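In this supplementary section we document a worked example of the pipeline. Step one takes a protein sequence of length 952 as its only input; no multiple sequence alignment statistics are reported here. Step two produces a three-dimensional model, which step three serialises into structure tokens for compact storage. The input and output of this example are shown verbatim.
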Amino acid sequence: MPKPEIIEKALNQIRKRAVNYVYFFNHLTSPEWIEPLYSNGMFQHPPLPEQEEGYISFPPWPESRYLVRMASKSPELVLSTIIKIPETENIRVHEDFAEAALAMPPDLAVRLIKKEIDWIKSQQHLYFLPEIYGKLISHLARGGQVNYALNLARTLLAVNPTMRKYKEENISLMPSSPFIRFDIWYYEQILKNNMPDLVITAKEDALKLLCDLLVDVIRFSDESTDETVEEYSFIWRPAIEEHDQNHRIHEINDLIVSAVRDVADELIETNGKIVLEIIEGQTFKLFKRIGLYLRRKWPEIDPDGTANLVINPNVFDDIHLHHEFYLLVAEQFDNFSPMVQKAYLDMIKQAVDVGKKFDLREREYGNQPHTEEIESYVRRWQYKKLWPIQAFLDQEWREQFNTLKGEFGELDHPEFYSYFSKGWVGPISPKAIEDLKSMNIDELISFLNSWSPSESPMSASPEGLGRQLTELVSLEPEPFSIEAGRFENLDPTYTRALLSGFRDALKQKKTFQWLPVLDLCHRIIDQTREILERKIEDMDTDPDRGWTRKVIADLLEIAFKLNMIPFDLRTAAWDVLSPITDDPDPTMEHEEKYGGSNMSPAMLSINTTRGAAMRAVMRYALWIRKHIEETTDSKERVDSGFEEMPEVRDVLERHLDPNLDPSLAIHSVYGQWFPWLVLLDEKWAAQNTTKIFPMDRNLHDAAWRTYIVYCKPYDNVLDLLREEYSRAIDNIESLSEDQKPLFNYDKNLVEHTMTYYWRGKLDIDEPDGVLTRFFTKAPEEFRGQAIEFIGRNLYNSKESIDSEILKRLKKLWETRINAIRATKKDNINTELVSFGWWFVSAKFDDDWAISQLEDLIELTNGKIDPDHLVIERLAELSKTMPLFTVKCLAQIFESDKNKWRIHSFVDHMRIIIGTALKSTDDVAYKTAAEFVDRLLASGYLDFRDLLTETDE
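The serialised model returned by step three reads:
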């Protein structure tokens, strides 16, 4: 044990300054200091969590880090010390406790685990602790402390109900997902890496623990399952085995299902029926499914019990158990006794209550099924039940099976009650795409006209059938295009689906016959939009022909963009598109409801019919221009602008009139396409600029903000919009808070402005110019974004920058730093801190760059961004500029109030300092040596060897 005078001297030193305290505890190597330090007040005041600006941090505690290092050397002493430490909410201190426990023998560690378990139960979030607690589970299990390992695992992996409250009433309800104390990734890692150690020692108790967790997950996932056995797991976990239908594999319920399955699978070979009893003794049907999975995989464990299950009526036709039951029967039917096989077939033959259940279900939804419908339903049910055992049928049953197969065809994924392709969970089709593909056009149209859905909420729907039709058409559009006119009188749900198929085919660059398709579109447009006496109360059937009109507009927009329509069909295409530009969607009521902070005008234009049509008009105009450019007199015709397409001009001018079309969504189209309006007819665009960006604030902002967000800064547009840019700069702070995140408008406005300056289109010396206005009126935050935008572009450019551009950028920088220096404000101006990006780009001559950096660091008290790259660049320049680089480094270091950043810079700092110390420049040497002295005084003793090396 150290002598009292040494202890007193050490305590006096560590109390002088924080850096001495940290250094002392970080370098202690003997546990003999623990008791005297404790007697002098140490190990009794763990640091509290620190909260600042909405963030919480957990400062490290050098005293507990020392105990961690001593835990393997003197575990009992460390244990007794930790147990006496007061309760703390500092996560890092608890991490040290757990790390110390890992270094102790398991029989000692359990005394600390008791304390940690109580603390874990009191926590809402464990942050980064689960990983080390998982290691403790393994440590205890391997060390024979099974019960403690189980208790820690149960506490750590616990799932709990999260309570929520209605805003209007103080009523607590359980949400749709349970609450765990840490990120699900950690949960998965513990199940994967640490649970196996617990299973080896705890065996069935580990399985019971997982079963309990799964029960809690089910109970807390939906309050309706609290007292029921039907948790509908076949929907959220279609297969107990690993399968691509299990689309939620990283959610808590799926993770625990897989863990229960795998542990049961591991234990069943040696523990047999006991495992089945644990699994099948649970209430919920999910466990029955796991039991069926195990019985299929391990048929020798309980063959009699399995045989009784397959002829149990409650199991035989339970949709919840369908998948696992199907696979079990398909694999084991031939192993059952003749008596069991006959009982199974008798249940199929008799179809007990199947027809009655169908009748009752249909009546419940208001349908009166015909006898033929009931009989057909029963036969299909029998067919499905025979499918998994078809290989084992005798001649009589095989003939019956083949008859049913002729009636109903091949079954698509019969092992699943519901099969979801491409991850889509939505409307169900009465026919698979293979069934539709087998029909000719007459049969298909007849089926679409005659089929009607039941009113069951989970049954097939027109929307589901329509989606299959869309996919079918997209696969092979040509034959459908030829016969397109025959689909005219179908329900709008199906005509929309047909046209959606052509649209999707276009996206895949597939060709088809356009004339009959355009003719069908024209006839649909000529029909009334509304359908008299049609009442649709769900989304499974189109309410009118409005959705079809929207698809037509989308179809044409894509076709014009890809140049897929023969140009001689220009008139036919326009005759289809023109009427849709007057579609009532969006109404003013629609925009009021869905616009504002919910959806920008530009997004509304994309998602509404008239908006889509106006966008298609722009594509139509560019499509025409493309073809004009291929003619012999192209220059003259291109210069004539809208004279070549007066129909476009008429539509554009009509909808520019706010008295005729006050829609913000439609007006945003003009803003989004303004550069292309200039391209198509610059004279027309100039004449209508004040109408596109009018005095009316709402209409103006709909077009202007859309232009700024969606368009790049084109040089030929600037002259037309110079006043608009000036006005925007004047009002740069006027956006409401809900508009800023929706548009990201201010950032784009800054980037437009600086891009034009980069290209030489704006002048920093113009007294009332756009750029002068910007740096005079824009908030400091936006001016900083401007400097950073240029810097990042310099840094990311892989090519050399033209000397004229660099000269222009230097002028901007010098103008701004001189302006800020002239203000002589006490507070630090953050506009220029991103000059670091300019500096690290290495695009400027080194002398200018380093001198500007030195001035900036002095002006900002060492603040610079990105500091890590700046210091890396300083290290590169230190060989040729040792004095400047070490001076800059010292200033940056002094600006770091808490000295947190230094740990990221150590290697490059050593290069800069070491180079200066070895240089022939006496001033550089003196500056570096003084800097090292300050580092050592601040407790960074790792730099003292640099002075030693120099002395040698």
